[in-house]
Design brief:
It is a single chain. This protein has about 450 residues and is α+β, with helices and mostly antiparallel strands. The chain is about 35% helix and about 20% strand. The protein has 16 helices and 19 strands. The protein has helices at about 1-10, 20-25, 50-65, 115-125, 140-145, 155, 195, 230-240, 255-265, 285-300, 315-325, 330-335, 350-365, 390-405, 420-425, 430-445, and strands at about 15-20, 45, 70, 90, 100, 105-110, 130, 165-170, 175-180, 205-210, 215, 220-225, 250-255, 275-285, 310, 335-340, 370, 375-380, 380-385. It is globular. The structure holds flavin-adenine dinucleotide.
């Protein structure tokens, strides 16, 4: 690696090639739970290019030497995707952070290292907003695209895939390719855009992207509805969807998780009683539309509810509820074996919850019920409790089996990365596996790009 480090210094400058283990340490991990993440290789160097051209030069160097490249964004991934599992280069995109907002076309032109938090902030200055919102705003645009990240607003706006119009990618041989542009429709080539989105760093380095923005909805409200049990909550939610309402987000949470998180955050719980809650965010361009939606949604959701819906309209109140919801993961983090993100077709949600209950009984575990219900993604996190590792792995496997049995997926949003590769191998169609391997070989014939991850 010494030779690579010396050559890299000529490209990016002395200060941006790091081999000091103390500085490297935080780059060896992502947010994957310590119990399940892979052991990082130590024979790695960290390189921080400052431009697209420098990324390309570094990748050319890695290609010519046959050295592994591990692309790294904000390191918030939950599947070990950014962890270097063999000797090579950790390629951090953090210095590629140019961002401009094209208000007229409602498009953000963002380099890979721009954080989600900054994109949200800058867009708002122009009266625009970026809908995808996975939980950690320290995630970078390159990482979000590479993982096809989701979050709670996918019900109305889809996951990252629906927000990327175009991008620039540095291929594993260092060549820079433009895929797509700022247009919403573009049929000029095969759809490579969607091949790179969600490819988890296995096919190249995303260096720049054109992202679709929307006018910021001027009026929003959060409706919290309590239910006697989760099944009743799901039933009401389905009735609301069938009636044609598509709120910004539709979340299902059990009261134990919400109260525990409120306590963890030092906030009192003042949002009513019930076993489970539906949390519905509605947002519209004007007040009349908003109130019509609140009225329609509340009427349907009240039917099976165990108490009155709570309507939060003031920003501070809405922010508090959303904060409690988005910090559930952190509240459980210390006691977490592994956070799961399985997805099922939305009509199977009740059957999936039933399967979870059976697994709970069989193994003596208790899953938090936390779901982006609107798109069928569940986070039945596996808590440590007093179980041994072997049993916890069995719990994971039964959750996967239940989701797949119902026509779902072992991962709705966090991705395969390293931790889910054996299960992707198990559940993926054989023909699809062959296609993925063929595409990988065609684009990355030396196999240097994020090896040991994602590809069957
Ligand atoms: C508290 C918390 C809540 C979360 N909630 C959600 C959620 O609701 N929904 C959701 O989808 N995710 C969620 N996540 C997961 C995570 O934020 C996303 O997976 C995010 O997309 C990772 O982005 P990153 O920049 O941190 O990528 P990293 O972790 O750095 O990398 C992730 C993967 O992308 C690759 N990669 C990174 N940058 C590039 C690039 N420029 N080019 C090519 N490949 C690249 C890496 O090699 C790796 O395989 C959550 C994470 C946390 C910690």
């Amino acid at each position: 690696m010494d030779k690579i480090a010396e050559e890299a210094k000529k490209i990016v400058g002395e200060g941006y090639v790091v081999s000091d283990p103390r500085i490297l340490e935080p780059y060896l991990y992502d947010k994957t739970e310590p119990h399940v993440r892979p052991k990082p290789a130590r024979e790695v160097i960290l390189i921080k290019p400052g431009s697209v051209e420098e990324v390309s030069e570094i990748v050319k160097l890695a290609y010519s030497e046959g050295v592994a490249v591990f692309p790294r964004g904000g390191g918030t991934g939950l599947a070990g995707g950014a962890i270097p599992t063999k000797p090579g280069i950790i390629l951090s995109l953090e210095r590629l952070n140019k961002l401009s907002i094209d208000r007229e076309n409602m498009v953000a032109d963002a380099e890979a290292g721009v954080t989600l938090g900054r994109l949200i902030e800058e867009s708002e200055k122009f009266g625009l907003y970026f809908p995808p919102h996975p939980g950690d705003e320290g995630a970078q645009i390159g990482g979000l695209i590479a993982c096809n990240a989701g979050g709670s607003r996918a019900l109305r706006h889809g996951s990252m895939r629906s927000s990327v119009l175009g991008m620039q990618v540095v291929l594993p041989n260092g060549e820079l390719v433009n895929v797509g542009n700022k247009t919403i429709k573009n049929n000029m080539a095969s759809n490579f855009l969607h091949l790179f989105i969600g490819s988890e760093g296995s096919l190249g380095i995303i260096v720049r992207s054109f992202l679709r923005l929307y006018p910021k909805p001027m009026h929003s409200a959060t409706i919290l509805v309590p239910y006697g049990n989760v099944e009743k909550a799901v039933d009401s939610a389905m009735k609301m969807l069938w009636a044609g309402y598509v709120p910004l987000s539709l979340e299902l949470v059990d009261s134990r998780s919400m109260k525990r998180t409120a306590e963890y955050l030092g906030l009192g719980w003042k949002y009513g009683e019930g076993e489970a809650f539906l949390m519905v965010v509605v947002s519209e361009p004007n007040k009349d539309m908003l109130y019509a939606e609140i009225e329609g949604v509340s009427a349907i959701l009240s039917e099976g509810a165990s108490g009155e819906p709570i309507l939060a309209e003031r920003k501070e109140e809405q922010d508090e509820i959303l904060k409690i919801r988005s910090e559930i993961y952190s509240a459980y983090e210390k006691n977490l074996f592994e956070g799961l993100d399985v997805s099922v077709p939305i009509g199977e949600a009740i059957r999936f919850i039933d399967s979870l209950k059976k697994i709970e009984e069989k193994y003596g575990v208790k899953f938090p019920i936390v779901a982006h219900l609107g798109d069928g993604t569940f986070h039945p996190d596996i808590l440590m409790d007093s179980l041994d590792r072997e049993k916890l792995i069995k719990v994971r496997e039964e959750v996967y089996e239940a989701a797949v049995y119902l026509g779902g997926s072992i991962t709705g949003e966090h991705g395969i990365g390293y931790t889910r590769k054996p299960y992707a191998d198990k559940y993926m169609d054989d023909g699809l596996k062959r296609l993925m391997i063929a595409v990988k070989r065609a684009i990355d014939e030396r196999g240097i790009m994020n090896p040991e991850k994602f590809i069957p």
